[in-house]
Automatic annotation (TrEMBL):
Record InterPro entries: 4_helix_cytokine-like_core (IPR009079), IL-22 (IPR020453)
Annotated signal peptide: 1-33
Keyword Signal set for record: yes
Gene that encodes the chain: IL22
Designated name of the protein: Interferon 2B1
Transmembrane segments: none
GO cellular component, one term: extracellular region
Matches recorded under Pfam families: IL22
PROSITE patterns: PROKAR_LIPOPROTEIN
Keywords noted in UniProt: Signal
Length: 184
């Protein structure tokens, strides 16, 4: 009886162990089978209400932005960066915008900020596995220039970042949403 129980339980253990191995194998395969860059993708997120809130937030902030000759999200940011790496670049800009500007200033520009911050944080989470293959130094350099500009401008740099949140939104869409989905 005891021997029977023992063999039943060891075969159960065997099954559990085999399932674990299978799960691990599947997980590894999932990781290795997905090409680099495949996670640099978002589904179309242009719902009317959040688009409106994002544009209203940008508009409110840009009323306070005196510095009209600096543009953060523009040609300079993308200089030398391939089309296919732009989502990865925008991921860095999004991270910076959230961490250094929107979260610290999250009590301002209500009621827009309280809607837009969790929305953008969710996009940032969805891009957490987005990486590119090879050297990303040129991308980091462009992003660093943006960060340096904001830091140099201080408070008015942060206002400018919020004033460009509409550009951030549109550029994320253009860079990360597949063209086949974007028109919908
Ligand atoms: C957003 O909605 C408000 C009213 O709900 C409207 O006045 C405003 O024009 C809209 N803004 C944009 C950018 O669509
Ligand atoms: C920004 O990036 C860092 C490092 O990858 C990560 O730990 C953090 O959660 C990101 N923040 C947001 C708001 O996505
Ligand atoms: C913009 O200019 C006004 C008037 O010169 C000043 O009071 C305000 O602090 C400036 N705003 C920023 C964000 O620098």
């Amino acid at each position: 009886m005891a021997a029977l129980q023992k063999s039943a339980s060891s075969s159960l253990m065997g099954t559990v162990a085999a399932s674990c191995v299978l799960l691990i194998a599947l997980a590894l395969q999932g990781g290795a089978g997905v090409p680099v860059g495949a996670h640099c993708r978002l589904h179309n997120f242009q719902e009317p209400y959040i688009t409106n809130y994002t544009f209203m937030l940008a508009k409110e902030a840009s009323f306070e932005d005196n510095n009209t000759d600096v543009r953060l999200i523009g040609d300079k940011l993308f200089r030398g960066v391939n089309m296919r790496d732009r989502c990865y670049l925008m991921k860095q800009v999004l991270n910076f915008t959230l961490e250094e500007v929107l979260l610290p200033q999250s009590d301002r520009f209500q009621p827009y900020m309280e809607q837009v911050v969790p929305f953008l944080a969710d996009l940032s989470r969805k891009l957490s596995l987005c990486h590119i293959s090879g050297d990303d130094q040129h991308i980091q350099r462009n992003v660093q220039q943006l960060k340096d500009t904001v830091k140099k401008l201080g408070e008015s740099g942060e206002i400018k970042v919020i004033g460009e949140v509409d550009l951030l939104f549109m550029t994320l869409k253009n860079s990360c949403v597949p063209k086949s989905e974007a028109g919908k």
